[in-house]
Amino acid sequence: MKALVTAARSNNLKPLTHTANKHLIPLANKPMIFYALEHIASAGIQDIGVIVSEDDTAVESAVGDGTRFGANITYIKQTGGALGLGHVVKVAKEFLGDEKFLLYLGDNIINDDLAPLVQQFEQSGANCLLSLARVPNPHRFGVPEIRDGKIVRVEERPVQPKSEYAVAGLYFYDSSAHLAAENIKPGFRGDYEISDIHTWLAQNGYNVQWAEIKNWWKDKGDPRDLLEGNKLILSAFTKSKQEGVIESSVKIEGEVEIGQGTRIGGKTLIRGPVSIAEYCLIKDSYIGPFTSLGNKVEMHGGNIEHSLVFDDASIVTPAKIVDSVIGAGSTISAKHFEMPEGNKIIVGENSNLAI
Known about the structure:
Blueprint: E1 2-6, E2 26-27, E3 30-31, H1 32-42, E4 47-53, H2 58-63, E5 72-78, H3 85-91, H4 93-96, E6 101-105, E7 108-110, H5 115-124, E8 128-134, E9 142-147, E10 150-156, E11 165-173, H6 176-182, H7 194-203, E12 208-212, E13 216-218, H8 226-235, E14 245-246, E15 251-253, E16 256-258, E17 263-265, E18 269-271, E19 274-276, E20 281-283, E21 286-287, E22 291-293, E23 298-300, E24 303-305, E25 308-309, E26 314-316, E27 320-322, E28 325-326, E29 331-333
Parallel strand pairs: 1-4, 1-6, 4-5, 8-12, 14-17, 15-18, 16-19, 17-20, 18-21, 19-22, 20-23, 21-24, 22-25, 23-26, 24-27, 25-28, 26-29
Antiparallel strand pairs: 2-3, 6-11, 7-13, 8-11, 9-10
């Protein structure tokens, strides 16, 4: 079995994606696409095609040839632009040949064990196996219509969902997917929808099965949604790894990951799960659960929890920061440090503030 991982650029998660491919945005200090590649390799699938935009070299630079994941990676250009997941199947046809394959969305985090799903697909005789997850807002996803336990149709972003399930970020196929891809047309968004491939298979005599997964996250297009993905990863922490220099005055509770070169001192409390990357400087601060700090972050007298802080940011304010995404190189300081005192803000497009 082969695997496809999507990593083409998109405009989701603005303003962060103005300058970065969202698949390389770090969650718990690791690019989110790395979780997909590690997950696939853990199930014994080693031949992986990564779908990238025509002009994008950042993904290949970050991921490499797959050696670090125990896999062989082939990069496949999505020519003509990002035209939907159905288009991904089309452009990968030469790479896939007639082999069975797994399509895995590179901006999804799935913490369920993948190997049993691979085994289920291999042994079931199904032409297609879809992972489903119960969600409170299925209208934002592809939604299956299930009759007598069988999928008969999948509708993309329906006004009236036919079930409480969303089709989650991994799909298994045999070569019949290529025939389906040839027979679908662009949908209302102008894209070749993967939901139409599933519907075509279900309505043309092919065996479409499903399996429910529990631990799944997909970004919804708002940077604050990254917090849920970060939380899902941090919630799975079972063992702390603490490097760097940690003074005796520092109190650490729960699972806390601290990278090399980081220095933590003063009256500091870190309450996990928390991930702190390399070469950070933290003093007299509180870092609460479900927080990730990137490389070279400085925090003096800070107070933060349930937040995502990217590389080279500086936080020098006692004001409590919660539920926040702080971009690379950002500075947050106390307003009384300068005159005249007040809220001083430099805001780019598509930003969100609560002050």
